[in-house]
């Protein structure tokens, strides 16, 4: 067993606080990782506060993890000691259902195992995440991190990056396509960077004029203030794809009207409460699609990391110590971060 220092929420009302626990001994195909950096995802806050009504306490959040391999099981072939690696939202799945066989482990029909607040398929114990000094993960769910990228900036790619990359790839973002990204937060800023690197014409939608300059710096060709009806009207019936990253309940109809015939709006933001139902005829009359997308499978996540390595893409981050996580949660609720907090896990070792 591996003694581990982390931070955990003990119930929905408690702040995160120091928590010691033990990681399992290595199984044949396990990799032991010393965690270096862990991104702070809005899902972490939802789970810590039980806003999705499925948390099992104590909760050790964190699924945007980068670290170094320090030990491997006897059957490991994919990774070796010293490798820089990443772990995202999944640490296991059934591996036998149709989705798993197609490399879509995130849609495992028997339920994937989350990096935290999941259930280990062997022991039945609750999994603990990356707000901790080390991790033990099956090699099949461990990813290679490109050597040319800043490891701290890579951490958010393991959730925010793949969450936007997957629908961009699925619905064919690329040259000749007009792609809109709704919201400029942790997900949205990655959507802008990735869509631009794929060669699409990128439009960022925001309610805040103060974000115009930054959106263009990140790669947006145009910025639309979504509460200005005239700006929205100018783009009606023109988009091939919209990536909606907003995690607050809102009216989808003004955005659906922006889609051309056969266009798609994909929801990737996860609100606490459902959006109001959209107008049916707006979908029917243009054969528009309203879709959803959940992170990505392991192969696609590796593809995303390799793509980011080729294009020099990382997340824009603000580094924090583990001891400042509760303050970071408070700021995240106010959207006071550009654009992802990343925890320096060395702060746990001091």
Please state the overall shape, judged from the principal axes of the Cα atoms: globular
CATH level-two architecture of the largest domain: Alpha-Beta Complex
Average pLDDT level: 96
Query: Number of helical segments?
Result: 11
Rounded radius of gyration (Å): 20 Å
For the record, the count of structural domains works out to 2
Oligomeric grouping of the chains: single chain
**Uncertain parts:** none
Distance between the termini: 21 Å
Which structural class matches the secondary elements?
alpha/beta
| β-sheet strand percentage | 25-35%
Give a description of the structure.
The protein is α/β, with parallel strands linked by helices. The protein folds into two domains: 2-158 and 297-348, Alpha-Beta Complex (Quinone Oxidoreductase, Chain A, domain 1); 160-292, NAD(P)-binding Rossmann-like Domain (Rossmann fold). The protein has eleven helices and 17 strands. Strands 3, 4, 5, 8, 9, 16 and 17 form a seven-stranded mixed beta sheet that branches. α4 crosses α5 (186-197) and α4 packs across α10 (298-311). The longest helix has 14 residues, at 298-311. The protein is globular. It starts with a strand and ends in a 6-residue tail after the last strand. The model has no long low-confidence stretch (mean pLDDT 96).
């Amino acid at each position: 067993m591996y003694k581990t220092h982390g931070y955990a929420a003990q119930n929905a009302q408690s702040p995160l606080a120091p928590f010691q626990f033990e990681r399992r001994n290595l199984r044949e195909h396990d990799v032991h990782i010393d965690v270096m950096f862990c991104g702070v995802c809005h899902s972490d806050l939802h789970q810590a506060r039980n806003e999705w009504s499925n948390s099992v306490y104590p909760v050790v959040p964190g699924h945007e993890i980068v670290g170094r391999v320090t030990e491997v099981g006897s059957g490991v072939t994919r990774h070796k000691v010293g490798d820089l690696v990443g772990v995202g939202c999944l640490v296991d799945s059934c591996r036998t259902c149709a989705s798993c066989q197609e490399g879509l482990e995130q849609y495992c029909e028997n339920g994937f195992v989350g990096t935290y607040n999941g259930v280990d398929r062997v022991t039945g114990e609750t999994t603990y995440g990356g707000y901790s000094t080390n991790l033990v993960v099956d090699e099949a769910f461990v990813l290679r991190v490109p050597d040319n990228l800043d490891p701290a900036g890579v951490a958010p790619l393991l959730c925010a990056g793949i969450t936007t990359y997957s629908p961009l790839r699925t619905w064919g973002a690329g040259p000749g396509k007009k792609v809109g990204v709704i919201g400029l937060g942790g997900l949205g800023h990655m959507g802008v960077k990735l869509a631009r690197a794929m060669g699409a014409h990128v439009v960022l939608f925001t309610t805040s004029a103060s974000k115009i300059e930054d959106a263009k710096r990140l790669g947006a060709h145009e910025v639309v203030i979504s509460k200005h009806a005239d700006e929205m009207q100018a783009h009606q019936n023109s988009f091939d794809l919209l990536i909606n990253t907003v995690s607050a309940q809102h009216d989808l109809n003004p955005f659906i009207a922006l889609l051309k015939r056969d266009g798609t709006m994909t929801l990737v933001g996860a609100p606490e409460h459902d959006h109001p139902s959209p107008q049916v005829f707006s979908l029917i009359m243009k054969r528009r699609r309203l879709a959803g997308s959940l992170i990505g499978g392991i192969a696609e996540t590796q593809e995303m990391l390799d793509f980011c390595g080729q294009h020099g893409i990382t997340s824009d981050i603000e580094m924090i110590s583990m001891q400042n996580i509760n303050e970071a949660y408070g700021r995240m609720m106010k959207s006071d971060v550009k654009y992802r907090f990343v925890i320096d896990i060395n702060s746990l070792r001091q």
